[in-house]
Amino acid sequence: MTDITFVRGDITEQAVDAIVNAANSSLLGGGGVDGAVHRKGGPEILAACRDLRASRYGRGLPAGRAVATTAGRLPARWVIHTVGPRWSAAEDRSALLASCYRESLRAADELGARTVAFPAVSAGAYGWPLDDAARIAVETVRGTRTEVEEVRFVLFDERAYEAFTARGR
């Protein structure tokens, strides 16, 4: 059984096997979590992402998918990049958001990772309502078969931390 924990903090400082990056489809860095991962992880992560773009993901990583790279200078061993969907009032994209968590856990299993730290995927710049993002994240992790022993949700601010811990009870 996977233990689920909640931490208020900076995902780039987590000493876990893998951290999940809320990436954009280009895989080449951006704002929020993605920008922090690339800045703090150093050029090794960008080089690995460029290799992915030159080979398997020429058009970028589609929403709901996940792919792993080195963690560069981060305390984690790997970074699992996943692209969350943008929230839409007109279209239910919940299955794509859930897929981000499932696919990231699948990638973690392929790596042999036992501890994985997740941010609140899609709940920042992509506009997903925080309570719903927390519900989808926690329910999906709980419902996914994995060899990961600990999933740590690392939330940057108090509002996100409260939303996720409320779902974790």
Automatic annotation (TrEMBL):
Domain Macro: 1-169
Pfam families given in the database record: Macro (PF01661)
SUPFAM superfamilies per the UniProt record, alphabetical: Macro domain-like
Source species, domain of life: Bacteria
PROSITE patterns: MACRO (PS51154)
PANTHER family: GANGLIOSIDE INDUCED DIFFERENTIATION ASSOCIATED PROTEIN 2-RELATED, MACRO DOMAIN-CONTAINING PROTEIN
UniProt-recorded name of the protein: Macro domain-containing protein
